[in-house]
Specification:
Elements lengths: L1 H19 L5 H8 L8 H21 L20 H17 L3 H9 L3 H25 L1
Helix pairs in contact: 1-5, 2-4, 5-6
Length: 140
């Protein structure tokens, strides 16, 4: 129960942070990505603040013997850079650059009733389903 409440609190805080920082506003994100044109550096402050919070807290947390809400730390295994990773990262970057929105802000945008978020999240779920189908076909 503590883990579920912690996840709910963290997710809510993350979504609120996306809203306050205007990361759910595609025009704001596209302004940040337009480094050769009318660049808006304000999201750089958001990222700097996030890293300034993450780095010392992660150091303190990982000094603990075990987490507070579960029995052990769950870190992803180290991954290798391969064709699938580069293809996925490239597609993600192109999509983010064209639409100015990514999955986290899109889900937050659903709560605030942003129409573009409904289209994006729908397309995202179709893409995840299509990947699952194609990956299952490729594996067999």
């Amino acid at each position: 129960m503590a883990a579920a409440l912690s996840a709910l609190l963290c997710g809510t805080l993350f979504g609120l942070g996306l809203y306050v920082s205007q990361m759910i506003n595609p025009e704001k994100v596209l302004g940040f990505l337009d480094v050769a044109g009318d660049w808006d550096p304000s999201l750089l402050l958001v990222m700097t603040g996030a890293l300034a919070t993450l780095i010392p807290l992660q150091w303190l947390i990982l000094k603990r013997v075990k987490p507070i809400c579960t029995d052990n730390f769950q870190a992803p295994p180290p991954s290798r850079i391969d064709k699938r990773l580069l293809t996925g990262a490239t597609l993600f970057g192109i999509g983010w650059g064209l639409a100015g929105i990514c999955p986290g802000p899109a889900i937050s945008g659903l709560i605030y009733g942003l129409n573009g978020s409904y289209v994006f999240v729908g397309a995202m779920f179709i893409g995840m389903w299509l990947f699952h189908v194609l990956n299952s076909y490729r594996s067999s």
